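Why AP endonuclease? Reviewers of the renewal asked for a concrete example.
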Amino acid sequence: MAQQFSIAHLTALGCSPPELTYMAARTGYDFVSLRPIYMGLPGEPNYDLAENKALFRETKNALANTGINLLDIELARIYDGLDPKRYLPAFEVAAELGGRHVLSSIWTDDRNFAIERFAEVCDLAKPFGLTIELEFVPIASVYNLEGTLDILNTVKCDNAGLMIDAHHFHRSGDRVEDLEKVPREWFRYFHLCDAPGEIPSSKAAMTRILREERSYVGEGGIDVASIINRIPKIPYSIELPNTKRVQQLGYEEHARRCLQSAKDYFAKHPRQCLSKC
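Here is what the prediction returned.
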């Protein structure tokens, strides 16, 4: 089966869900990964499809018209004071649009609270046929593979899994060999990008790069192939926000180059299964 690619919404966050879908079709993607859970971050557009019925209908029509599929939605964060039921409208939207997965990450230092709320999120998503994919983020409370596996092994939810981001994996300092201890069924998709090899020493610099300055695959210092070779063959969701490239090229050309650079990289680095993948 040919490798499949999605465009993550953060790559072209200025595009509404229907715009992103049509652009994904024009530039050769198989999926889109949408961001309908509004987080209120500075400059973040509000694409709450559960609230904006017109935008939901336009998105549903775009998916039907293009044949593009919805891979996942984000971001079901676990944070202090969270009532997981707030995510139910987004789960319903994702299911109606044919989505498969929901991305989650943990932003509370209270381990017991995180475990309880993450398990509840998984339970709430299950009737919709959705899986919850836990991602570690270097600026979050759960910031490495060890911490993520601790959560997953504790909750033991059959619709919970692990989502690895190339940028975050490199920044966490984890070893690629450690991926071999992860159950294969926990891998369902992968965030693909590159970034400078030098790891920033400050949180501000780390945040700026992960949100605004990621690199095309093969242009940075991350050994992406070493990660890919130790996980199963799954869809790659290209999450590659780069403000300067978008200003120079526009969203569509940036999206096209994201995909082409990834394909070029894998042509030069054919997949090798180095573990039980």
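The chain has a mean pLDDT of 96. This is the kind of structural detail the renewal will allow us to pursue systematically.
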